[in-house]
Design a protein that fits this description.
The longest helix is centred in the N-terminal third of the chain and has 20 residues, at 6-25. The protein has 1 helix and 24 strands. It has one helix at 6-25; strands at residues 52-57, 64-68, 71-74, 81-83, 88-94, 101-106, 119-122, 130-133, 142-146, 149-153, 157-160, 167-168, 177-180, 187-191, 194-198, 206-208, 216-219, 225-228, 233-237, 245-249, 254-260, 268-273, 277-280, 288-289. It is 7% helix and 37% strand. With 293 residues, the chain is mainly β. The strands form 6 sheets. It has a 4-stranded antiparallel β-sheet with strand order 1-2-3-4, with no helix packed on it. Strands 5-6-7-8 form a 4-stranded antiparallel β-sheet, with no helix packed on it.
Length: 293
């Protein structure tokens, strides 16, 4: 069931997206040099950066990473520890292999990467990055890894089997967030018009008119998906985004979220809000501060 009408969502989505875009692009001081140790939390949120662009959790180790305006941080224990160089990671996603990430955005002070960075990849958990393609050309604000490659958006929605060669997708929408899983070729895109769904690795798309209007979406496993509305209402899908059930509510302005398979069929969900990092262990029915006991 649609919780917001298209008109109401369009206004809410546009305002939320504009706010996030403006906050993400405002230049700010960098908190520490590349490879620095613990970084003081921001005064307002308790997180190491007020501009969070991506969030991922390692299913095997429970390591929690934030991709931010000031670089990558391990926030398994707050206030967090800086990983690697200070680059503005506007797009960020985890690949299937342990410690492998794709990212995009802008280089930070002292970086020798081009601006924009194009698609870069780390195979050591974010400590170092290699340049794959479109350096000096693309700032991918949305990225997703699938079984057959990478889906990305830099003003054009594109797919790549290897992160080096790209093909434009047949899509007429602007995605706010792309979500995929290395376990399948199903990809979801949140848009002003509603949830778009692809089953061929992002090459072709179809609007799911019965899905809730969500701004954030993430796969917890091969078929389990969590979606979050602009106002924080949480929804769950057990069939890769076809059908949805409302579960709970996240308080505060969500900036990024992720999910992993949990015990007893209830995904574990993390969300970075403007105020704090929160976690749910009951499939989104309730949330608590991630650093609480």
């Amino acid at each position: 069931m649609r919780v917001l009408t298209t008109g109401r969502f369009s206004a809410a989505f546009t305002a939320a997206a504009l706010l996030l875009t403006l906050s993400a692009c405002v230049p700010g001081a960098t908190p520490g040099s590349p490879g620095a140790g613990p970084v003081p939390a921001t005064a307002t949120s308790g997180l190491p950066s007020s501009h969070v662009h991506g969030l991922t959790v390692n299913r095997k180790t429970d390591q929690v990473l934030l991709a931010t305006h000031e670089g990558l941080f391990d926030v398994t224990k707050l206030p967090g520890t800086k990983i690697g160089a200070t680059n503005d990671l506007m797009g960020f996603t985890a690949a299937a292999d342990q410690g492998v990430f794709y990212a995009s955005g802008h280089p930070g002070p002292g970086s020798d990467l081009p601006n924009p960075m194009g698609l870069i990849r780390s195979v050591d958990g974010g400590k170092t990055w290699e340049q794959l393609s479109r350096q000096g050309e693309s700032d991918f604000h949305a990225l997703a890894a699938t079984a057959s490659g990478v889906v990305a958006y830099d003003g054009t929605l594109q797919t790549s089997p290897d992160g080096k060669t790209w093909t434009p997708a047949r899509a007429g929408f602007v995605p706010a967030v792309l979500a995929g899983t290395p376990e399948s070729d199903t990809v979801l895109a949140t848009t002003r018009e509603g949830l778009q769904r692809s089953t061929d690795g992002g090459k072709t798309w179809e609007l799911n008119a019965t899905a809730p209007i969500v701004q954030f979406v993430a796969f917890a496993g091969a078929t389990e998906v969590i979606g979050v509305e602009p106002g924080g209402t949480v929804h769950y899908s057990a069939d890769a985004g076809r059908t949805w059930t409302r579960t709970g509510q996240i308080e505060g302005q969500v900036q990024a979220m992720t999910a992993v398979t949990g015990a007893e069929g209830k995904p574990r969900i993390w969300a970075a809000t403007a105020e704090r990092l929160v976690v749910s262990t009951d499939g989104g029915a309730s949330f608590r501060a991630a650093d609480s006991s």
